[in-house]
Amino acid sequence: MMAIEGRGSAPGRLDFLGGVSDYSGSLVLEAAIQLETRISIKPCPPRDRNTGGVLLVAGNDDDDTNEEVQSCKNDTTIEKSSSKECCSTGRSNDGMMNRNTKTTTTRTLSARSAQFPKDGEVRFDMDELESRASEGLDRVRLLLSSSNAPKWANYVFGAFVAYCRDVAKRYPQESLTVTVDSDVPLGEGVSSSASVEVAVCRALRDYYYEGEGVDYDDDEDPLRVARVCQSAENEVCGAPCGIMDQIACLLGQHGQLLPIDCGTVATLPPAYLPEDALVVGFPTKVRHHHAGVNTPYQRARTATAMGCKIAMGVVPEIRSLADVSRLVTPWVYERHVRGLLPETLGGRKFLDAHGDVAEVDTLSQVDPEEDYPVGACLEFASKATFYANLALSLLEGAAFSDAESRHRVLTRIGELMLLQNESYNKMGLEHCVTDTIIDLLMSFGPKAGIYGARASGGGSGGTICVLCNEEALPVLEGIAAEYKTTLIL
To answer: Which CATH architecture has domain 6-11+33-251?
Structure first.
């Protein structure tokens, strides 16, 4: 009988319009790229707990040795267990097995990455992962962080347990090895993390289907996997992202713009650029990350939540941060909200006047010692859906127009991108390298077929999204060569 193997893949994405407004429920436009993550899931032999690098079951119930990380020879192996019985090597100082050691095997989940060969194999007890996940995905996060597992492994294990817990409703009964191979650049703003998460879920779906003939995704909610992946990123990886990236990597097709309504968590029919127009990624080589506290991304999200809570005073229909883009339209913002929001608001002053923001956003926390760009962040959220809808309307009108009309449409859409880039700067998501490259690109401008550009995704470096035509590619390639970077298509 042929061994079962599950395979899955998912592309990265370019953020055309919208960016960080996804957590405020806006409409965003996303473009899948050709680069992708590939995942393979295969059974592996059960691990003997009495072999090197694997936890052993010691017979002494009084042993209260703490959790420990053990390394196999020529292999980095990480296994954790909260059980005090599963923590001893079972060996005396001379290397002989203790008589009271019981030989047994354990069901494990292993992961290895082709991009990080020096990390070797990262391995955990699957029973322990399952137990932690049943208590909450944040418990899985604690397990991973305490083990010194490499960061890439968090996305693999997080998506794996979230899919098993919330979609399949069961875990594999055999030990498995997950192999990751990806072309999607890390830390460059093209959703490498969401690409991994979606690919893991697809590989698990394939694994279950090959082994049991059961398709756990065959239901009325095609976006359930995206929700599961977002939960993994929020709760296991500690990145307070919206759902934009996961949906883009799940449903995005190269050559299309995918409109995503992040408020209702739904997609609209794909949009298409004119035939000679392209969306191109220009990596700045400034790496960024969104997981953790006090990142520019976290600060911008918290500032938006602060503005949201203040706006509730004049827009009482608001119940959460995800309502902002729908209820605080550009007119509502200008007429009723702008005057309430200072350009910058100190955390302590906000907390004294309004309390915390947990009622509108559980992933934001106001730091009393921090200053927040509240006005700029809420203004961006209020205008993002308007910008996306305007771009869609312009594209629809350009579908059957002449070359001159298409040029005007692309120039107007490019202006929307440039305006959103300036908003990023006001929100604290800027980077000098990004602005320098955009200024250089726009010095050529629409007359050379370069219509617009913006910091995409979470900003702070990463990849610039560029709207251009095919004739402008040599110009972009020349500038990219100066920056020793490669364009993303």
So the answer is: 2-Layer Sandwich (3.30)
